[in-house]
Target: RCK N-terminal domain-containing protein
Amino acid sequence: MKSKYIIVIGCGRLGSELAVKFSQNHSVVVIDKNEKAFSRLVNKNFTGFTMTVDTNDMDALKKAKLDKADIVYIVTPDDNLNFMLAYGIKMIKKEINKEDLRIVARVNDPMKKDLFQRAKLELFCPIENSANQIFADFKGADEL
Amino acid sequence: MKSKYIIVIGCGRLGSELAVKFSQNHSVVVIDKNEKAFSRLVNKNFTGFTMTVDTNDMDALKKAKLDKADIVYIVTPDDNLNFMLAYGIKMIKKEINKEDLRIVARVNDPMKKDLFQRAKLELFCPIENSANQIFADFKGADEL
Model:
């Protein structure tokens, strides 16, 4: 199995879960502006690196070695920040000519999905994932 | 197709999505403590009912005719409130002898899942749903 270099931006509930699980088989760097966020990784067998970075500062983000990364997950709870980061990293990706870098952003508010799609950003939406699962479960349970 | 009576507690991003979609084929009552929350249903072809209820007041919740309901989705963003509501409605369910009433609660913090499970509450966790989908997508894209 080939090991990838994965960057996770935002070490909240979702980010910490991704970081822990991916770090079992891959090189993971997890970034948060707040050092305390990394307490979520304690006692979880996290084997990657943490980096405290002001996520509003695109230049600081370059420290994460985007040129070496295979995939970046942008999963803070702030949609506006996620959008800005995804867009900014997409620009860096062009600058450094790194076509195979995947950038995946979290969208919390389904109303904002359209904006992400127009900017041609790869996204996922936890609310919609859950809604879809609830509908599937509902149908399964009631045989509709 | 048999139409069900579905109660959705919490008209936020997830609750409003469920309410709109379920109301296409079922009787839906969506409850929120804040009337403004129902603005999420505007221009969405929602055909159910809204009810402004203090969700901290279990007695007030009885107005939602739990005895007539087939399923209750408790999907506020507040895990503690969701736990309290799920537990309270489970008690009402016993009182009124309504064994076939399904109660499904949202858990936002994966750390709290255990508590819900110990109380034998049916739950789902948007963060985990998304994490699982991300792992599946990651494997799909990279053929690991």
